[in-house]
Design brief:
Blueprint lengths: L4 E3 L7 E3 L4 H9 L5 H32 L1 H7 L4 H22 L5 H26 L2 H20 L4 H22 L5 H64 L10 H11 L3 E8 L2 H8 L1 H18 L5 E6 L2 E7 L3 H17 L2 E3 L2 E3 L3 E8 L6 H21 L5 E3 L11
Parallel strand pairs: 8-9
Antiparallel strand pairs: 1-2, 3-5, 3-8, 4-5, 6-7
């Protein structure tokens, strides 16, 4: 659904029309929505929003109908027995019954017929009171028809069509009764008729405006609700895309581990004692040369899975480059890092990697370095720490592979290619 117009953002100073759907057009022209589902939704919403007002209207109408019986006693005492029967034995009990029905689950379905019946009884009852009260009825009690018409047009639940039928039916009934009364003068009848015609026209316009406003309010709330839901969905999609992009920016697409950039970001932010483990797949070039890169990729994925399964919570594992992996262990000393490193090495060695070329036994060489305490220059300290772990890894390779090597000051003299 759409609103009626929108502001032109191109600086032309003119508003551009927005397409109005069939439901909006139907509401404006015929007081009904073309879509049955929308019409049903409107009726349910209107009922829920106006039920309290409907009950209050019935209580007020019944109270006025009953209280006006005191006027009967004062102005037409000779007819009060008959008018009271109409008021207290017919109109008020019918209204009270409809009020009781409004507290049941059946009222939503029967609301319009029930209110129409209550209004018809009240209107025709007032016509009967006019007839029973004689000449004074035409002078005084026809005003009750005016009040009835005002009640009909403002009572929620009746609607424009029911109000129109009832007010004009009451006028026709009044004209028929009045012309059968020989005591009613032509001047009085003409005066009352003109007042009732004007009142009925006003009741029709008021009822139309109120129902149209109720439908427009529903339509606007529905538009806002749908646009809000669409906006939330769009924002949710944007947030999901942003999260996906953020995840992709810090994740290696092959292994699902952190990439090198994210690894450095986390390491630089640690700012405390930390250890770094570097792992390199032994003879990985031979695996690629013999079995192809697809098998090589499967080996890397399997090793990544085993790294994830063996590191501590809070450790950060990444694919450092090619067949090399790194694990950052914040707050770890050399002993803890050595334990993790050995667990990684043995875990990878213990189980063959299932590939298209069959199960392959794979081993890794591990180099570990740690630095106690923070450094005035975190990035320089990190680079030095990685360099130490790399030299320890070189020593592990140099001394036979498939082993863990802790950095030692003598490694500083080793040449790492």
């Amino acid at each position: 659904m759409r609103a009626s117009r929108r502001r032109d953002d191109r600086g032309t100073g003119r508003d551009e029309p927005i397409v109005v759907d069939a439901a909006s057009a139907g509401q404006a022209d015929r007081l009904t929505f073309d879509d049955p589902a929308v019409e049903a939704e409107y009726r349910a919403d209107y009922y829920a929003r106006t039920l309290g007002h409907i009950r209050l209207s019935m209580v007020l109408g019944m109270s006025l109908y009953a209280l006006w019986g005191l006027v009967d006693w004062y102005t037409v005492p000779e007819a009060v027995a008959r008018t009271w029967v109409i008021r207290y034995a017919l109109a008020c009990p019918v209204t009270l019954a409809a009020l009781g029905l409004s507290y049941t689950r059946w009222f939503e379905r029967w609301m319009t017929p029930a209110l129409t019946f209550v209004s018809a009884v009240g209107g025709f009852g007032m016509v009967a009171i006019v007839a029973e009260s004689g000449p004074l009825g035409h002078l005084q009690f026809y005003a009750g028809l005016i009040l009835c018409a005002m009640f009909f047009c403002t009572c929620p639940g009746l609607g424009f069509r029911a109000t129109t039928i009832i007010v004009w039916a009451d006028l026709i009934a009044y004209e028929a009764v009045a012309r059968l009364d020989p005591t009613a003068t032509a001047e009085v009848l003409l005066n009352n008729t003109m007042f009732l015609v004007a009142t009925n026209a006003l009741a029709m316009m008021t009822s139309f405006a109120l129902e149209r406003q109720a439908r427009a309010d529903f339509l606007h709330r529905k538009i806002i609700g749908e646009q809000t839901a669409a906006l939330r969905a769009a924002l949710g999609e944007v947030e999901a895309r942003r999260a996906e992009a953020e995840h992709a920016s810090r994740t290696d697409p092959l292994t699902g581990l952190a990439n090198r950039r994210h690894f450095f970001d986390v390491a630089a932010a640690a700012g405390a004692r930390e250890a770094i483990i570097l792992l390199d797949v032994d003879h990985f070039k031979a695996i690629n040369d013999r079995f192809g890169h697809a098998v090589g990729d499967r080996v890397l994925q399997a090793i990544a899975d085993r790294i994830r399964a063996n590191v501590r919570p809070g450790d950060v594992a990444c694919r450092f480059g090619g067949e090399e992996f790194a694990v950052l262990l914040p707050g770890a000393d050399l002993g803890a890092a050595a334990t993790v490193g050995e667990r990684l090495r043995t875990g990878i060695e213990a189980a063959a990697v299932e590939t298209d070329a069959g199960p392959l036994g794979v081993t890794v060489s591990v180099g570990i370095a740690t630095e106690p305490g923070p450094s005035p220059s975190p990035r320089a300290d990190l680079d030095a720490l990685i360099d130490r772990a790399d030299r320890a890894l070189y020593q592990a390779k140099h001394h036979g592979r498939n082993r863990v090597r802790l950095w030692h000051p003598d490694d500083a003299l080793a040449q790492v290619p």
